[in-house]
């Protein structure tokens, strides 16, 4: 059996030289194909002969005749070189029109309301054999579920990523006030006192009423009166249509709700924190053709959806 020291003497260049010599049976023609001078090819052949302890090729007239050892190892070397070529060959461009399978995206519900419908519609046009699966996702479990293969990528406000993940910025999401003006009569522009005096409905998956909005209000000496907390944004429009109350929500879903449910939106009367919405995906998927196409599709659709709704922010292309 060949020892490790012998194997270390044999590199890819030597195997390639052997393969070309087997095909050409002529040093000059083989050197020309390899873009080597004859001395360089002769030196490579000498190293291979020493490593394998066999002549490999003997001169017969103007050509070379492979030895029995060379003939016996040639098929395995050709298979190995072919395998390497297949492995490093550029991937074929992903063709969404002919692809059949699932695309899976993780989103919190406010972003889902703004982007999922337009994304599903565009995917149906471009990849009719595909199916879009939306997965409810919170930032606290997005990284774990990404590693488990639950979705291709997550769109949310993500924490600092692990080294094997990529967190790409999408847009900074501002807040906006929303209410039903048939229920709640407010004077424009909305004042701090008017905001604080109104009844508020908040959204919290865990039932927490206090948020960064309350911290911002407290710095101005005001405090809002929360009368109800719903677990998902989808429950908010019916609550606002049923009572004289106001909500402060991310701009993307606020504008979407206003269009769908006939609600009124207005700017908050104080600066509020913005949330950096990002895309989280696995580093190993960075160059994958299918995954890259899906990420780009989402960027296109989300950017168009933000513009159509009147949002003041634009999508970053960094995630592409």
UniProtKB/TrEMBL annotation:
Entries under Pfam families matching the protein: HTH_1, LysR_substrate
InterPro entries in the cross-refs: LysR-type_TF, LysR_HTH_N, LysR_subst-bd, WH-like_DNA-bd_sf, WH_DNA-bd_sf
Superkingdom of source: Bacteria
Domain HTH lysR-type: 10-67
Keywords noted in UniProt: Activator, DNA-binding, Nodulation, Transcription, Transcription regulation
Keyword Cytoplasm on entry: no
Similarity comment: family membership: Belongs to the LysR transcriptional regulatory family.
Protein's name in the database: LysR family transcriptional regulator
Organism annotation: Rhizobium croatiense
């Amino acid at each position: 059996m060949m020892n490790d020291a012998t194997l270390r003497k044999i590199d890819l260049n030597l195997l390639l030289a052997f393969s070309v010599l087997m095909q050409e049976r002529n040093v000059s023609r083989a050197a020309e194909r390899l873009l080597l001078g004859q001395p360089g090819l002769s030196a490579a052949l000498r190293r291979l002969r020493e490593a394998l302890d066999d002549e490999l090729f003997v001169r017969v007239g103007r050509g070379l005749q492979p030895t029995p050892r060379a003939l016996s190892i040639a098929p395995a070397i050709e298979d190995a070189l072919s395998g390497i070529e297949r492995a490093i060959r550029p991937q074929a461009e992903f063709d969404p029109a002919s692809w059949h399978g699932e695309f899976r995206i993780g989103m919190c519900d406010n972003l889902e309301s703004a982007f999922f419908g337009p994304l599903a519609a565009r995917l149906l046009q471009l990849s009719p054999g595909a199916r879009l699966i939306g997965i409810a996702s919170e930032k606290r479990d997005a990284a774990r579920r990404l590693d488990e293969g639950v979705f291709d990528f997550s769109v949310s406000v993500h924490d600092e990523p692990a080294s094997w993940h990529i967190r790409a910025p999408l847009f900074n999401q501002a807040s906006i006030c929303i209410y039903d003006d048939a229920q709640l009569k407010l004077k424009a522009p909305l004042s701090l006192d008017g905001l604080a005096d109104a009844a508020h409905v908040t959204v919290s998956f865990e039932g927490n009423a206090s948020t960064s909005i309350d911290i911002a209000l407290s710095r101005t000496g005001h405090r809002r009166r929360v009368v109800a907390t719903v677990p998902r944004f989808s429950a908010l429009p019916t609550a606002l249509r049923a009572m004289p109350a106001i909500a402060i929500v991310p701009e993307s879903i606020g504008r979407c709700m206003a269009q769908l449910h006939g609600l009124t939106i207005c700017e908050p009367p104080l600066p509020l924190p913005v949330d950096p919405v990002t895309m989280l995906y696995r580093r190993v998927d960075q160059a994958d053709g299918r995954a890259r196409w899906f990420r780009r599709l989402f960027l296109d659709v989300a950017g168009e959806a933000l513009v159509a709704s009147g949002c003041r922010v634009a999508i970053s292309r960094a995630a592409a």
